Amino acid sequence: MTKRIFHSICFVAIAVFFASVILIMGMLYGYFSDMQQKQLKMQLELAAQGANNEAGEYFSDLPVRDYRITWIDADGTVLYDSDTQSAGMENHLEREEIQEALSSGYGESRRYSATLMAHYLYTARRLDDGTVLRLSIAQSSILTLVFGMAQPISVVFLIAVALSVFLAVRISKSIVRPLNEIDLDHPLSNEGYDELAPFLRRIDSQQRQLRGQKSKLEQKQTELDAIIGNMNEGLLLLGEKGKIVGINPAAMRILGAEENPVGADMLTVSRDPQLHGIFSKALDGERDERTVSLATGRYQISASPIFAEEKAVGAALCFFDVTEKEKAEQMRREFTANVSHELKTPLHSISGYAELMRNGMVKSQDIVPFAGKIYAEAQRMIRLVDDIINLSHLDEGVEDMRRADVDIYDMAEKAVGELESQAEKAGVTITLKGGRFVLRAVPQLLHAIIYNLCDNAVKYNRPGGSVEVTIFEKENNICLSVSDNGVGIPVDEQERVFERFYRVDKSRSKEVGGTGLGLSIVKHAAILLNGKIELHSVPGEGTTVSVTFQ
Amino acid sequence: MRSRFDEQLELLNREMITMGALCENAIASSAKAVTDGDAALAEPVFSLAEQIEEKEREIEAMCMKLLLQQQPVAKDLRTISSALKMVTDMERIGRQSSDIAEIIKMANISASGGAKEVHDMAVAVIKMVSESIDAFVKKDTSVARAVIEYDDVVDGCFNRVKKLLIDRFSQPDANGEQTIDLLMISKYFERIGDHAVNIAGWVLFSITGNRE
User: Chain A residues with CB inside 8 Å of B130's CB?
Assistant: First the structure.
């Protein structure tokens, strides 16, 4: 812009200079011509005076001046010429100024002289003797004038150019300076050209709009980053040819990537063939969903291609952790199978005995023992169904269970009392030790815990064995421990005994009785009462189960 | 011109990783078949071995084309020439995995037949193969060196298996056929370990330029 203004100013200055020089020259030329004409006329008058007085002698010793003097006879014959020999000259009668002078006494004209190849001014006067005296002078042309003045003009020109360049630099800078100094970050604080105000206002409003949109975008981006970064599901974006474009921390954990693999080839992160199959299919433009076992667990992976202009340019892979879900599903399946099996066994016995009796194949004295067996099986089923109902109540975290202040020692005493006869039959002694502590708990649940633990301790014991129930305080928490010196639980099954229907010794289950739900009930009741279960068992030596209430 | 060459090198890298993954699968499947004594598990190994062979030919052709058309020098030349060597080792791994599968299919080795020693050896060899491929993928010299050192573990395993099998022979009710089969299987494992060492060596060469 500065350049443009500078150029314009220089151009204008130079153009004005030339225009004025040309105009001035034109005017000067007219003025000089007039002056010349007047001078010529005056000289002619003087010369005519001289010629009239001195007649022919006047020309004999006339010094040659700037003028050309011609003396012409009335018939047009040249009598004298100051420049050339008069003898060879043509007749001048037809010349305009001569004609004029002959008729009116004075004449003038301006002609291009072919003889001397220049413009000439002519003036002629008729003398008293009828002859004509003519004076002429070469008229200087504009060019000669210009050439004559070339030196001063060029000096003036140089000065003018220098001045205009200097001024142009200063002016163009001062015009542009306010524009350069505009603070576009704060458009409204600028003073300067009023003409710019609408632009500045517009810029200001657009800047505000932009800032608003930017902060909105940033907020959205942070939200999105937070969601993607913190979600448990893995998210992986692949570009063309399986290059990783984006990956969230969960996906990195799932794939076992150590450092951020963005930009790396997917194959360098995981070369699992199943995974490879899924994402290469997605990159070919096909959706796919599969459950795949990776080193870190089982994942349901759904891959969808990303299209741009009808062409698959990438793929988005989502990893859902289904390890727990599949485990839970398997447990549910096992549970259903177990329940039906457990319920079916007593029913088979009942149905078998009843069938024998119906067909009259039982002697009358055997009916009572048979009925006793049917009764025992039915009782077992009732216990089983009761346990299942209890368990499902616990599963739902039943609300109608009111907490109350319970003396845990009383509860234990009651449970031990209920089991005494059973223990006696099995030849096991139960002892209760410890102090009285009051616990805020649901009495039914606490009873279920103590009863089931003691029941197990008695059942899985040997004749002559002993069960010890201890209540004590440990680190401000009330602790209940039931230990026996019975059969114990093998180490690799200790984890599983709390599962529903899980029996360590499946073949003895019927003999011992029990439903396989006892410890499961204990576990759930303890969870509801904020209790922590610890199991310590050595096969063949005994088991200690302790519950710490927090 | 260079960008096209880079693209081709990248493709070569991808194909190599894919082939490595196939090898890992093959050896893992046949090892599982050995340790579980289940011949059905070895079934997929045969098709895997075929795929590996096909990949070998593909990669060889690709390398030849690159060598002829691009006339690579320095690191690129090392990458391509070591790839050429590596695919041979990988192909051997695939072939020997399928040989193991073949033995299992014919001999029907029971789960108890493959003792703990054989199981340990299988685990060690799988680790070696996996890590040699890892070394290639990550271009990691330390992993490659670890693989080369780990070969001693596999050799130790082989010696233990050998002793165990000698003991078995000396027992009166020795099952000669099964014992010999186990010996062959462990020899194959040992060979696969050596191939993994070769691969690791070529990885080192492609990175450092020194054949150690």
Answer: none
Residues of A in contact with B8 (CB under 8 A): none
* 3-class secondary-structure state, position A285: coil
Fold match between domain A35-140 and domain A231-321: yes
CB neighbourhood size of B163 (10 A): 11
In single-letter form, the type of residue at position A266 comes to M
| Chain B residue numbers touching A241 (CB-CB < 8 A) | 10, 14
Q: How many domains does chain B have?
A: 1
What's A404-549's CATH class? alpha beta
pTM, 2 dp? 0.55
pLDDT at B57: 92
Alpha-carbon distances of A342 from A92, A197, A391, A489, A502, rounded to whole Å: 160, 90, 15, 22, 11
Fill in the DSSP letter of residue A127: -
Q: What average pLDDT does range B78-86 have in this prediction?
A: 88
Return the residue of A nearest to B10 by Cα.
A265
Q: H or E stretch including B48?
A: helix B43-70
Nearest partner of B44 among B106, B88, B97, B107, judged by Cα: B97
Encoded tokens for A435: 């102090």
The pLDDT tens digits of the residues spanning A510-548 come to 666 677 788 888 888 888 888 888 888 888 888 888 888
Fold of A326-396: Helix Hairpins (1.10.287)
Listed residue (A280, A339, A289) closest to A520, CA to CA: A339
Residue (of B80, B116, B121, B100) closest to B23 by Cα position: B100
Q: Inter-chain contact B17–A265, Cβ cutoff 8 Å? A: yes
Architecture per CATH, domain A231-321, reads as: 2-Layer Sandwich (3.30)
Nearest to A107 by CA among A69, A134, A131: A134
Q: Where in chain A are the domains?
A: 35-140, 192-230, 231-321, 326-396, 404-549
| Separation of CA A107 from chain center | 97
Give how far B20 is from chain A: nearest CA, Å.
8
Q: Which CATH superfamily is domain A35-140 in?
A: PAS domain (3.30.450.20)
pLDDT at residue A223 in the model? 93
